[in-house]
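User: Sequence for Acyl carrier protein phosphodiesterase below. Tokens please.
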Amino acid sequence: MYLEQKRVFCRTGTMNFLSHYYFDRHTTNCYHILGTVLPDLLKNADKTIILHPEKLQHSNPDVNALIAGWNKHLAVDRFFHSSDFFLTHSHELKKLLRPAIEGSPVKPFFLGHIALELIIDNLLLTTGKIQVDDFYVHLAGCDTAVIQEFLTFSGLKDSTRFFKFYEEFKRSQYLHTYAETHQIAYALKRICMRIWQNPFTPQHEADMNEVLGHYRDELMGSFMDIFEEIDNKLQDL
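Assistant: Structure tokens for Acyl carrier protein phosphodiesterase:
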């Protein structure tokens, strides 16, 4: 089960779509914006999809913009997951969530990782650092044919499952719910249900909501430190 959980990190990817968007919130190129979240969209759509377009060059500048956004995503993830901020707070959340989920098959370290990312997205929205509607406008501006061209060029033979997921992702605009703190526990449950059929009881969810709400409030005054740290590192690339 431990190895299975480690694999879930790989196939779910990070869940902080909006944190990735933050670094390019002033970018006007919709394909670059899509590229910054595309690795995680693909993993959520189909865990078997593995693409490596990092070093590819295409004659279509829109496809190249997707590749540039993809590379930005990888850089941000690398800096974030190696940061003291991530290691410290994901560990602390793990300890705090352990008693809240007693009796659940879900391991606290798994929750600590994802919960931190969801809390950060929540704070970006609730403190007005980004506007989620702007993010969805960018996605709506991307031509499906260009996305398909990128996927084919990157080696994906069948994009059916991805586009089914992607269209629903845009339609539901689920990221709006990240502004509601109580939805963080619900999002965690949905992620865990990819492994366990019934990962949490209603009491587990209530206890997690209490832990996550308090931790969110504690992070509010300092969470932007990690964005400044990563932004500085990105400038050196």
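The chain has twelve helices and no strands.
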